[in-house]
Amino acid sequence: MTKVYLKAFLILLPLYCLATGTMAQANYTRITNYEVYFGWAKHYPQDWMILRRFENNGKPYLLLVNPQTLETKVNDAGFYQVKPMSMAEARKLFNSTPYQKALSKAESQSIAIQDAGIERGLPKETGISLTADLCPSHKPLDRRIFTDIIAGFKRVEPQVPIALSVSGLWMKHHVQDIDWLKQLQANHEIYITWINHSYNHRVSKTNPLKKNFLLEPGTDIKYEVLETEKLMLANGLLPSVFFRFPGLVSDQQLVYKITDFGLIPIGTDAWLAKGQQPQSGSIVLIHGNGNEPVGVNDFIKLLQSKAPSIAKKQWLLYDLRETVEEEAEVK
Fold it and tell me: What is the tens place of the pLDDT at every residue in 30-61?
């Protein structure tokens, strides 16, 4: 009888891991037919919104978002009851959810040439959401960020949340850094939300902002968004529903192009290297690509100054998904 139970356990264990999300994100290295695809996906008891569909090695997959929690996942398309929709239809269906409210809130803050989108969470939060941008760079990942937050929070927040804005060109040249980050997550030391930061992250030292970064004439925004997602998936990274504009530069038309991909633009109210001081609920920006040591140093000093509050759980790092979900509910 014991052998029967053991056999059943071994059969059901992979299914349990899949259902609870404890399995590591797969590497989808043979992606074809990757496309924007919206719709409703049902697998009792959860409704999901479909963002993308693709094939890997000939097998169909969906990239989905839970509109209540902003959690994303990739799964076998055959696992769901699917109803294709336009983006407008899907947004109407999920109109009352935090995901749709966050999209609308980002669109309502789309006028500014810099820092459009959602800039901060709720002031009642005694702590911050940390975002680190990984723009193209030949320098190695600044690993102090991660080792210091792990050391600072290990007694109060074992799996520390951090959001990383990753560009395609950074991923192409930093495979070892990606593997190191994935190992930290596999060890449950950090939890990473991966933000799309465009593929090329072009920047001109001479162009005005209205013709710079993704506003540079001739930019193929579809390529910038989707190729980054495909490279994330190939490297075993799970794309989130968030997008950060390179240089934090956009215009209203570009913001709507990004939300039309189902992505929520994320700004900041505390770019540390520019001397902006974080407040309760701030979405803090530093650069982890080795090009901005000033911001990293400032963050490490901030951690040290908050050590007594961290020890009492009076100052914490918050999951960006939860921050945005709660902020979107504020009318």
Answer: 999 999 999 999 998 999 999 999 999 999 99
**Dihedral, 301, 303, 309, 313 alpha carbons, nearest 10:** 180
Distance CA 46, CA 195 (A): 24
Nearest by Cα to 157 from 194, 129, 195: 129
| Residue 63 burial (C-beta neighbours within 10 Å; 0-12, 13-18, 19+) | buried
State the Cα–Cα distance between residues 144 and 326, nearest whole angstrom. 30
Written as six digits, the tokens of 16 are 């349990």
Contact between 254 and 246 (Cβ < 8 Å): no
C-alpha to C-alpha distance for 205 and 171, rounded to whole angstroms: 23
What pTM value is reported for the model? 0.92
CB 112 within 8 A of CB 274: no
Residue 110 makes CB contacts below 8 A (sequence gap 6+) with 116, 117, 250, 251, 252, 255, 256, 265
Taking only the tens place, the pLDDT of each residue in 297-329 is 999 999 999 999 999 999 999 999 999 988 787
What does the alpha-carbon distance between residue 204 and residue 193 come to, in Å, rounded to a whole number?
28
**What is the spatial distance between Cα 152 and Cα 306, in angstroms, rounded to a whole number?**
9
Q: 296: which 2 tokens? A: 């990293």
Tokens of 56: 């890997």
